[in-house]
Design goal:
Blueprint lengths: L1 H20 L1 H5 L3 H19 L5 H24 L1 H8 L3 E5 L2 E2 L1 H6 L4 H10 L8 E6 L5 E5 L6 H7 L1
Helix pairs in contact: 1-3, 1-4, 4-5
């Protein structure tokens, strides 16, 4: 039972740590950060199983974390607020071509991050964008202004 309790505590620590790291950091992880996460995994294992190197201890630890993941997923399905706490919520970073600075600061996102993502999606000027959203997975979604087709184009279509 000791392994199960330690696994539950470490699960909560990992969830909190990943939320604190922020969305962009997880979406754009460097090789160094990936190595740090692998090392953290080993440290978590040591903290969870301590001196218990048995198959039973490993199964209990992995099973506990797996069940907690399923439980959190199910609770997020039942109560969207749980999902928002664990996964995060979309954040409006640009409105009518203008960056929303408080949101950028809160999410530790720079103007260059937004511009680079816009260019990747074929957007050369942020003034073309009605709004942009930083999604929970760290990616940006851009919605351009809906411009009515020109009169010449409408006549061709008729």
């Amino acid at each position: 039972m000791d392994v199960v309790m330690r696994a539950a505590v470490m699960y909560i620590v990992v969830v909190l740590l990943l939320r604190a790291m922020g969305r962009r950091e997880l979406a754009e992880m460097s090789s160094f950060e990936l190595i740090v996460l692998v090392v953290m995994g080993d440290l978590i294992q040591q903290g969870v199983t301590q001196e218990d190197y048995s198959i039973t201890g490993a199964v209990l630890a992995i099973g506990t974390m797996g069940l907690l993941s399923l439980l959190v997923s199910y609770l997020g399905f039942l109560w969207p607020k749980v999902d928002e706490i664990v996964e995060g919520a979309p954040a409006l970073v640009l409105r009518d071509g203008e960056l929303v600075d408080p949101v950028l600061r809160a999410n530790r996102v720079t103007k260059d991050d937004v511009l680079a993502s816009a260019r990747e999606q074929g957007i050369g000027d942020l003034n073309e964008v009605e709004f942009a959203v930083l999604e929970p997975d760290g990616e940006f979604s851009f919605v351009r202004f809906n411009r009515a087709p020109s009169r010449a184009k409408r006549h061709k279509a008729e």
